[in-house]
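Reviewers of the previous submission asked for a worked example of the structure-prediction workflow described in the proposal, so we include one complete record here. The input consisted solely of the amino acid sequence. No template or homolog information was supplied to the procedure at any stage.
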Amino acid sequence: MGKNSAVIQRGAEAAGVYKLKTPPGYLGIKRVFDVVASVLGLLICLIPMGIVAVCIRGESAGPAIFKQERLGLGGKPYTMYKFRSMYLDAEKDGPRWASVNDDRCTKVGRFIRRCHVDELPQLFNVLKGDMSMVGPRPERAYFYDEFEKDLPDFRERLRVMPGLTGLSQVNGCYDMTPAQRLAYDKTYMESRSVWTDLKILMQTVIVVFNGKGAR
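From that input alone, the workflow returned the following structure tokens.
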């Protein structure tokens, strides 16, 4: 069994620890909203995204879009898109969780992280159905394996679709420990609703403009 298959298997075996709230009609409404919001977002941000891509390519060698495998709903792997904010050899010494004032970032990378612009390409993931506008932030299989050593229920997050933003993001996610992030994700899973998602999205707008939680 491959590593990713093992992650999915363990995710399935761990299911049931948290109470997962799914109001009637919620998932259908959520998907329609995701499609509409991602299409509108891409249309509105098309020119700014083009400018960001040019700036990234102008400062350092490498593609403007960074692709990385993350785990989605049920532990299914998918390719997540981001604007590249680091140098190409950023992980030459192995995977490392991003931190505040990360020394692997380029100058353009620090700016787009502070404004959270680096996440905009994930609107394509939302449109494709890999992600939702709101949900736990996706992580790599490597970090699930690492975090579950101390937090065996960390992969409970795989029971819901990952999001472009989430409850931990609007509460200073980037300064949190994995345990703190999991606590916020658990709260979201147990109380998610259309109204909860709208509140998180409104709070996200505030976070984007004040730079809160940037790393």
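Residues 1-16 have pLDDT under 50 and may be disordered. We consider this example representative of the routine output the project will generate in years two and three.
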